[in-house]
Write a structure and sequence with these properties.
Blueprint (H helix, E strand, L loop, with lengths): L12 H13 L5 E3 L11 H15 L5 E4 L5 H14 L4 E6 L8 H15 L3 E5 L1 H4 L5 H8 L4 E6 L4 H10 L4 E4 L5 H6 L4 E2 L8 H10 L2 H14 L6 H9 L16 H6 L2 H4 L7
Parallel strand pairs: 1-2, 2-3, 3-4, 4-5, 5-6, 6-7
Length: 279
């Protein structure tokens, strides 16, 4: 989910509440909050705590919540994980990305994830995102991490179908989630159990239908939307698309900027997202 912001770049909790309710109404199986799309890297610790409390209190067990706790400082990760534990009323998990900028080795990544999982002790999905983290979790590495009893799955955003296939093969008892909307159907065909989706912010029913029905026609109909939503750095495109649909304002926090006028024109945002969502 995006984190809606006001013009002053404060969290817009009223809009956030509306979007949570709409996602649940449309049948999503869980909410992923404070991930990449939620601009977690520019949220302060206190803001994250406010979001955690708000989401838990508002969702009220209707669906599970997955809170992103990724970062490159283990002390801060543990502090946030323990805060989630303090407010946990069940049906709560965490999403932990590979540490960005540090570019740790494969062995260091194994130790990092085990250390975090064993101390936080909440269901954990690990997150492989080489394009942002600067390092790639290889399949043998993923296997060693997924052997941890607290680690329940992996969000795979390497974009490498061969690698994703190998992780599915090595880890049949753990959930492998697609991390790229444009690869969702191919990932389902090799055994991925779902997607942590950007497009679902505006297309939850279609995202669910592609998974449930393995619907090739519907998937191909969405490819223009997927291309547009990743034409610039996420979440600038999805926030602009949502703004066209009255779902939030297009504001993002620096160093990101709002979607460029050239991208809006090139990808036909106003036409593409004028009636794509029946809110």
């Amino acid at each position: 989910m995006v984190t809606p912001l006001t013009k002053d770049l404060e969290i817009d909790f009223k809009t956030f509440q509306k979007n949570i309710d709409w996602q649940i109404l449309n049948g999503v199986s869980a909410l992923c909050i404070m991930g990449t799309t939620g601009e977690a890297s520019t949220l302060s610790f206190d803001e994250k705590v406010s979001i955690i409390k708000f989401a838990i209190n508002h969702v009220k067990h209707r669906v599970p919540i997955i809170f992103g706790i990724g970062g490159n400082n283990p002390t801060e990760i543990l502090k946030l994980g323990n805060t989630i534990k303090e407010h946990n009323i069940g049906n709560i998990g965490v999403l932990l990305s590979t540490p960005y900028y540090n570019k740790c080795t494969q062995d260091a990544a194994i130790k990092h994830f085990h250390d975090m999982a064993n101390q936080i002790k909440l269901p954990m999905i690990i997150y492989n995102i080489p394009g942002r983290a600067g390092m790639n979790l290889l399949p043998p590495t993923a296997l060693k991490i997924l052997n941890n009893p607290f680690v329940v799955g992996i969000k795979e955003s390497s974009g490498n179908i061969a690698q994703i296939t190998e992780i599915v093969r090595l880890c049949p008892d753990k959930a492998v989630y697609c991390g790229d909307d444009g690869l969702s159907l191919p990932c389902y065909s090799i055994g991925c159990r779902g997607i942590i989706s950007v497009a679902s912010n505006i297309k939850p029913q279609e995202t669910i239908a592609i998974y449930n029905n393995r619907d090739t026609k519907l998937f191909l109909e969405q490819t223009q939307i997927y291309d547009a939503l990743f034409c610039e750095v996420n979440p600038s495109p999805i926030k602009y698309a949502m703004s066209l649909l009255g779902m939030c304002k297009p504001y993002v926090r620096p160093p990101l900027t709002m979607l460029s006028k050239s991208a809006i024109i090139q990808y036909g945002f106003r036409k593409l997202f004028s009636s794509t969502c029946n809110q």
